[in-house]
């Protein structure tokens, strides 16, 4: 077997071990649910606004104009988070969480006689669960520390930095530990249900669930939605030549490279075997084709790839959309064959998405 191929496989193996040994696999899964986390955070802002108004008219703990101002800010936070959830990013999520904690610290400032104690515990537990379910452990620790500081300042300024505050801090610490435990359990259960065991990518169940949600969002927002199916060329040759272990390592390497190259809201799922599905919201077929061509050109692999793209036509079901992408994929393969760009050719010229496994070196694209 060619030394270049063996050298490349060895390099892939090292990157795979590094990938599986890190927390990137779990973080990738968490990032896929960033949109849902924004939904829960938006609901949090909405409820926070109603709580502020409730205490203002029932308990009369604060100044009415300031209460109305804080409730207005909470409702603005709800609208803002609801808008950005379609372009969710970790940084915006962190800033929104800190803003929500700042609003809760205002309630802590007003809670002189303990009327809002139960609400404060629930709001902090809510935020703790959300941040530990989405952020990496280090990020979540920093954000939870900021939450403790904000709550402590609110309690201290409202009640004095005395025994009351010293009682609250252990409660916050216990809630933080509880958030870590529960979120990790939820994350692990989600991995078993929605992730492909080998590659760490979303599986077919996750694909169908989230593609259904993206179709509803595209219909509501009147935005384009494209789906692509990627198929590895000559993957059977790779398995037969180097063994299934090398093939598995190549799949993991590709999964990590592709998922790292996509936009924040896009995701790639393993459809089965050596086929993958890429979902690209707010992207028409021309943009999706250009993006996939760029990704496949920049991605390093030891097997070429073909892809087909289909844009949702506002009427098709999920099955029809995937069938359309699959038809486009086979049309792409047929055109390659008609042009004589078969993967078993002896020369390395031609389609940059394909590699000759019999050559002495592997071209990186």
Question: Secondary structure elements and their pairing?
Answer:
Layout lengths: L2 H19 L2 H9 L1 H25 L5 H21 L5 H21 L6 H18 L2 H23 L3 H32 L9 H18 L3 E8 L2 H8 L1 H18 L5 E6 L2 E7 L3 H14 L6 E7 L6 H21 L27
Helix pairs in contact: 1-11, 3-4, 3-5, 3-6, 4-5, 5-6, 5-7, 6-7, 6-8, 7-8, 10-11
Major beta sheet, specifics? 4 strands, antiparallel
N→C terminal distance:
21 Å
Proportion of residues in β-strands: 5-15%
Radius of gyration: 25 Å
Which structural category fits the helices and strands? alpha+beta
Question: How many beta-strand segments?
Answer: 4
Report the oligomer. Answer: single chain
Strand order of the largest sheet: 2-3-1-4
Number of helices, counting only DSSP H or I runs of 4 residues or more: 13
Can you tag this structure with a few keywords?
365 residues, alpha+beta, Alpha-Beta Plaits, 2 domains, 13 helices, 4 strands, 68% helix, 8% strand, disordered C terminus
């Amino acid at each position: 077997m060619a030394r270049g191929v063996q050298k490349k496989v060895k390099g892939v193996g090292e990157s795979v071990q590094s990938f599986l040994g890190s927390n990137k696999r779990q973080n990738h899964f968490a990032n896929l649910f960033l949109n849902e986390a924004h939904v829960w955070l938006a609901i949090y802002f909405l409820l926070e606004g109603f709580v502020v108004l409730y205490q203002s008219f029932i308990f009369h703990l604060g100044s009415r104009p300031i209460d109305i101002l804080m409730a207005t800010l909470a409702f603005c936070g709800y609208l803002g988070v609801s808008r950005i959830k379609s372009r969710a990013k970790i940084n915006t999520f962190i800033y929104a969480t800190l803003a929500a904690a700042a609003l809760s610290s205002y309630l802590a400032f007003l809670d002189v006689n303990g009327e809002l104690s139960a609400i404060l515990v629930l709001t902090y537990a809510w935020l703790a669960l959300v941040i530990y379910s989405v952020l990496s452990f280090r990020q979540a620790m920093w954000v939870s520390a900021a939450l403790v500081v904000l709550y402590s300042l609110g309690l201290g300024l409202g009640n004095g930095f005395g025994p009351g505050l010293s009682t609250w801090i252990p409660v916050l610490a216990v809630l933080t530990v509880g958030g870590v435990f529960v979120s990790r359990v939820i994350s692990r259960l989600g991995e078993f249900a929605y992730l492909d065991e080998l590659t760490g990518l979303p599986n077919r169940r996750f694909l169908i669930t989230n593609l259904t949600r993206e179709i509803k969002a595209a219909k509501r927002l009147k935005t384009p939605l494209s789906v692509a199916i990627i198929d590895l060329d000559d993957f059977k040759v790779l398995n037969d030549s180097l063994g299934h272990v090398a093939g598995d390592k190549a799949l993991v390497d590709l999964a990590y490279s592709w998922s790292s190259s996509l936009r924040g809201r896009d995701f790639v799922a393993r459809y089965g075997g050596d086929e993958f599905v890429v979902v690209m919201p707010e992207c028409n077929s021309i943009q999706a084709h250009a993006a996939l061509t760029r990704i496949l050109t920049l991605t390093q692999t030891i097997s070429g790839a073909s892809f087909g793209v289909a844009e949702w036509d506002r009427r098709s079901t999920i099955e029809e959309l995937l069938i359309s992408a699959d038809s486009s994929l086979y049309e792409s393969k047929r055109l390659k064959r008609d042009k004589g760009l078969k993967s078993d050719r002896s020369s390395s010229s031609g389609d940059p998405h394909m590699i000759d496994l019999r050559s002495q070196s592997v071209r990186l694209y």
